[in-house]
Write a structure and sequence with these properties.
By secondary structure, the chain is α+β, with helices and mostly antiparallel strands.
Length: 780
Amino acid sequence: MNRKHKLIKTSSIILGIILIIGVCIILLISPIAAHLIEKYDEQLTGRKITIDRVYVNPFTGYFHCSNLKIYEYKSDSLFITAKRANVDISIHKLLFKTIEISTVTLVEPIIMVDENKRKFNFNDIILKFTPKKSNHKPSGIHVNILGIKIRNGIIHYRERSVPINYYIKNLDIDCPGKRWNSDSIDVKYSFLSGTRKGDLKGNFSMNVKNLNYRLYVIVHSFDLKVLEPYIKDSKNYGTFSANLEANLKAKGNFKDANDVTFTGMIAINKFHFGKNSKVDIGSFEKLQLSVFQLSPKDNKYLFDSVSLTHPYFKYERYDELDNIRKMFVKKGRNHSGMDANSSTFNLLTTIGNYIALLSKNFFHSNYKINRLALYNGHFIYNDFSLNEKFEGEMTPITVISDSIDKNLDRVTVSFSSNIKPSGSIKIGLSINPKDSGNFDLNYHFQHVSAALFNPYLISLTSYPLNRGIIELNGAWHVRKSTIQSKNHLQIIDPRVTGRISNKDTKWLPMWLVMAIVRDRGNVIDYQVPITGNLKSPKLHLKDIIWNSLENIVAKPATTPYRIMVRNVEAEIEKSLSLNWEMHTGIIDKNQEQFLKKIAHFLAKNPEASIEVHPQLYMRKEKEYILLFEAKKKYFLASHHKSNTLFNSNDSTRVEYMSVKDRLFLRYLDRQTKDPLIYTVQEKSELLLGSKRIDGKLELMNKARENSFMNSFRKKGVEKQVRFTHSENVIPFNGFSFYKISYKGELPASLLKAYRKMNKLNNENPRKEYKKDRKNTNKTN
């Protein structure tokens, strides 16, 4: 019993000593480990490391530290911080020359990624731990990392040369790890955008040996404002906004950019790019691509649909350059806005180059788009390089194509839009997808107001039009790039109004031009065939030449007929409307005689009355007033005159002055001093203020009403004249006018003119265009 008792006692003592030693080891090894880490940190890693608390269990292989801080290389700035870091190592595997880390967990890490001209703040770590080439035999030690977890992390990315300061938050990463004899890595990830809205999640796997990869990503309302610094690097000014939606799967190989296959959906929503957040140059509501299979290496571009909703684009020409080149072209840079030899990384340029690479062989591959569509588009074109601004719009633009397939014999595309202020366009294209030199094209421009092009006509001839409708249609049949086409131009009832004299406008006798090109029915009607090759088309002017010669020879005989037609038209028009010259409230003698006739008619017919509907071309009227007042202010300043001494001769000189006058433009630049304003109109408005122009416009409209009513007041019939509310319109004839409607009996002269015109329209040579004239009257 004594011997047994002694054995138990000895065993207990030994066990107690072992336990005490174990506890001592556990208690002492943690501070020792912390001390060793902080002592040899820079020697081992090149970075300073600090830890608040360390717990090490050498028996279970568990390591824990709190408030981990790793500093930048030779700096007191932080590189990585983590609230907690845990590592589990399988101890018994060490006996078999295997280092197996069961789990590595970082809780609430904050990682700073700093880049400066393609140099990162972790390059020193990569360099330090990159194994040097050696002829030594492998050690035979295997390393397994079986689990990596990051919880609620934050990654800050700073790019100093652009600059960019962006971060993501709520970063969660789960990686099953990698065994020494396995080639694959799998990662599950999710995070939120730190500065804006949006989230992203998905899976990524890669074979580290052959660099094959698979990617699955879901993006929800990811704000792309983060890309704006890259755009700022390429432009002079402007703002950008958009957000991204995606549900994509991809597989490929990192060795070859073309070795990638995409399936799924990607959409960009609420895209805006413009001078500022309120002024768009380009925008769209949604661009969506639904992809069946996109594989450049396999020459497959198969889309279910490509759709663009509510695109908007404004193009403006200035005296120098245009709104696009003004925004992007920088001195000393190429047209992309980047120096050719720049070492600065630009994500947008990289993405653009990659998309260009992926789509390089699109037309030489097996491509298919089940539906291509553009809905409710809007295009604006403004030309400020003229003395008078030209403005035209197409809206709503619709482009539709079903089944764009290289394996089909023909692919059809339709384009349609209205043209403002009047008209429409329709285009139909049928093309062989295997041969771009094999297609049929049909187009039709209809009911387009000729007065729309008055800014160009005034600049080239000094004469605007106040009447006329343009019809243009054609059919092209192209085979093997050889053209056979018919093109038909009609301008119904074009009419030249009075000359507008200006220093910079050229002069061309439009009355003589019209006498040559306009036929007896008051129509310009030409067939213009185009033949030849797509690279060198031939324009056949035979019809134009013969028609012009015929007009010169045959029209003099029909002069009395044409004069009668013009007189009847004038009688009808002046009975139904009164046109106003721009920037004036004065009626001419012919208009005064016409108003006296109406007043006399109302005096003889007390039961009759008229309604006057002012149709005001406000945009154009404001432009005329704006430019006149700006030139006037410059004139008074340069001649040291006061406004009270400004006389009619001065007014004529100001009217004749060009808005492109070099001294006037220099005056505007000195007064406005805004480098982002490029047009005379904008500078003039900044100089004068919109209230002043609105006041001048109101005074002009009152003067017009008084001038109109004078004849009726003298006859005492002003109560038989009623004005309706004025309408802000873009008139078909290009001028503001008063539309007159009669209540009760019509004037005999008007009835007689109607009967004459109906008769004339049913006779040659006007009968041929009777239908077109009806359409013109509906439009006008």
